[in-house]
Design goal:
The chain is an alpha/beta fold. It contains 17 helices and ten strands. A five-stranded mixed β-sheet has the order 2-1-3-10-4, with helices on both faces. Strands 7-6-8-5-9 form a five-stranded mixed β-sheet, sandwiched between helices. Helix 6 links the parallel strand 6 and strand 7. Helix 2 crosses helix 11, helix 2 packs across helix 12 and helix 12 crosses helix 13.
């Protein structure tokens, strides 16, 4: 284990599973319900079904996973697409082979005092940290609801969800942005969901699977087999509720069935059957990133996406057959 992977382990910890044969390592950014396709890929045995031995390594962030990918310590990295774009802009020769979260998986919740979007102007909102993805998502949501986040709202970095819920309950802020199953807690506390990016049909390149381009060239069958298992994991999630809930419970260490059902109910319809990246989603991401780094404007979807592996699998009829 070299210094890059050792650093990632020290920062975040990791869990190994199978170690037989030539093991392929998959880096994941922490533990989250959004990573359910990879949990299912591992625990339902789809890796072995397609001839792969894999281990999942939990890292503190997608950017650390990208670093480990570049060092050759992992072969696949699940990461925020923005982290991949930043690495690519810095010269990293990586590509996205699948986009499994094609929107911002957030919901804006507000105080019961807020009855409509028109009431949001002049109000205060809490996010985890200014500049974080929750901040970016909130500002996009406000714009979509006709509020200028820079002139007609106050956005505060307040830390974790519990802190933001406390501020919302105390009236210090009027709204915040969260991910399921936090939406369940919000409703129980009397807060009102006012906008969901998923329900609004907003496309945004949020979560992708990355590989080093050279690894793909030299291991085309490995990449194809990974995508077979990954797309079958998505099919499993869509057709096996109880199995998915058991796996989600194991990985998130959460036995609250109501919370697990909340997360599953949200994500089951979010994962695309065919996880292609969309030009519209990439354009939305690039537009947001270019506000902080104008050089990103020159970036194009084809600069980072290589959907040829997925396209080849799709043309074979493999994915369609999963749903017959």
């Amino acid at each position: 284990m070299n210094a890059v992977l050792a650093l990632a382990v020290l920062l975040s910890g990791f869990s190994f599973s199978h170690t037989l044969g030539q093991t392929r390592r998959i880096g994941i950014p922490g533990i989250s319900g959004s990573l359910l396709p990879l949990y299912v890929f591992q625990d339902a045995g789809f890796h072995r079904k397609y001839g792969l031995e894999t281990e999942m390594i939990s890292m503190r962030s997608g950017s650390i996973a990208i670093q480990a990918l570049l060092a050759g310590e992992i072969q696949f990295a699940a990461s925020g697409t923005s982290s991949g774009v930043e690495a690519k802009m810095a010269g990293a020769d990586i590509v996205s082979i699948a986009e499994y979260i094609p929107t911002l998986p957030y919901t804006v919740v507000v105080s019961s005092r807020i009855e409509a979007a028109d009431d949001l102007k002049g109000k205060r909102f809490g996010v985890s940290r200014l500049g974080a993805i929750s901040d970016i998502a909130l500002r996009l949501a406000l714009e979509k609801m006709g509020v200028d986040p820079n002139k007609e709202a106050v956005v505060l970095g307040l830390g974790d969800v519990a802190s933001r819920f406390s501020a919302l309950k105390a009236g210090t802020i009027d709204g915040t942005i969260i991910i399921p199953p936090e939406t369940l807690t919000a409703r129980k506390m009397g807060f009102r969901p006012i906008l969901s990016f998923q329900e609004a049909g907003v496309q945004f390149a949020f979560g992708s699977i990355f590989i080093a381009r050279d690894f793909g060239r030299k291991n085309r069958q490995v990449v194809s087999n990974f995508l077979k298992g990954f797309t079958e994991a998505i099919a499993y999630i869509r057709t096996n509720r109880e199995g998915s809930l058991r796996i989600l419970s194991k990985w998130t260490r959460n036995e609250d069935r109501e919370a697990l059902q909340e997360a599953y109910g949200f994500f089951v319809n979010l994962y695309p059957k065919k996880p292609y990246s969309s030009d519209e989603g990439m354009k939305a991401l690039i537009a947001v990133m270019s506000e902080r780094n104008p050089a990103v404007k020159k970036f194009k979807a084809q600069d980072i996406n290589d959907m040829e592996y997925l396209r080849e699998l799709d043309k074979s009829g493999f994915i369609d057959n999963l749903y017959r």
